[in-house]
UniProtKB/TrEMBL annotation:
Gene3D superfamilies: Cobalt-precorrin-4 Transmethylase, Domain 1, Methyltransferase, Cobalt-precorrin-4 Transmethylase, Domain 2. This is diphthine methyl ester synthase. GO terms for molecular function: diphthine methyl ester synthase activity. The keyword Methyltransferase applies. One of its GO terms (biological process) is protein histidyl modification to diphthamide. It comes from Biomphalaria glabrata. Pathway: Protein modification; peptidyl-diphthamide biosynthesis. Keywords: Methyltransferase, S-adenosyl-L-methionine, Transferase.
Length: 284
């Protein structure tokens, strides 16, 4: 059986009992190492599981699935994913490939940022489409995520913004020359994501009540599920200079808020300005 096992969001102990049993009996154990990270490294997982863990990078998962799934028709192979296994389309693709090869599979679910974002106090059933905010470069500044945020906001819905992760990336020069040299991992911070949103706002000069402004409320979360989890409610302008600490970060743009949601965000408000904004009926 090919098992896709969710690890949750915190550390090695967040794996489910069922998932741990599978890991300890599996012939091989892989750790998907590019769509997300835990607050602990591979060594901590190996110590807790009592098993060797093989890192599976993007190239292995997307181009060497035969090697990944080898013998899983006669033995148990575990593929570990931070959060929930079906939180990324890459893992759905693995299921399709397994099905094509006649390989049996089973998914062991766990907590992901999609449901754990409830920690910030905004109700899960009031969220619209999830968006991804990517790192900008000097010559590439996509804005499609901004339009999706506006669409959600016009419908009164909150937006969860997943922030870019760069793992085992190559420069264009190294890629073209075929040199196996990789850049250090990079993680988009909530403050940089807010800065990019503010730049779009300035460029578009949108001032209507339904659009985002520098004074719009946002919520940043960092290291959700860990002991040092951090949540901050702020204006976009304030968030652009807020240090949320080490990765991973996510950003939420609220839509219409119930009084209880506003009360919850007040728990995470640090400035008098955002406390004042949250105490009014205007949530823009």
């Amino acid at each position: 059986m090919f098992y896709l096992v969710g690890l949750g969001l915190g550390d090695a102990k967040d794996i489910t009992v069922k998932g741990l049993e599978i890991v300890r009996r599996a012939k091989r154990v892989y750790l998907e190492a590019y769509t997300s990270i835990l607050t602990v490294g591979k060594e901590a997982l190996e110590a807790y599981y009592g098993r060797k863990v093989i890192l599976a990078d993007r190239e292995m998962v997307e181009q060497a699935s035969d090697e990944l799934m080898a013998d899983s028709d006669i033995e148990d192979i575990a593929f570990l994913v931070v959060g929930d296994p079906l939180g990324a389309t890459t893992h759905t693709d693995l299921i399709l490939r397994a099905t094509e090869k006649g390989i049996p599979y089973h998914v062991i679910h766990n907590a992901s940022i999609i449901n754990a974002i409830g920690c910030c106090g905004l109700q899960l059933y009031n969220y619209g489409e999830v968006v991804s905010i990517v790192f900008w470069s000097d010559d590439w500044k996509p804005e499609s995520f901004y339009d999706k945020i506006l669409t959600n906001k016009k419908r009164g819905l909150h937006t969860l913004c997943l922030l870019d992760i760069k793992m085992k990336e190559q420069t264009i020069e190294n890629l073209m020359k075929g040199r196996p040299v990789f850049e250090p991992p990079r993680f988009l911070s909530a403050s940089l994501a807010a800065q990019q949103l503010l730049e779009i706002i300035r460029n578009r000069k949108e001032k209507c009540s339904s659009a985002l402004t520098a004074d719009s409320i946002c919520v940043a979360v960092a290291r959700v599920g860990s002991q040092d989890q951090k949540i901050v409610a702020a204006t976009l302008e304030e968030m652009s200079t807020t240090d949320m600490g080490t990765p991973l970060h996510s950003l939420v743009i609220p839509g219409d808020m119930h009084p209880l949601e506003r009360q919850m965000l007040l728990l995470f408000a640090e400035s008098e300005k955002i406390k004042s904004v949250l105490s009014t009926e205007d949530t823009s």
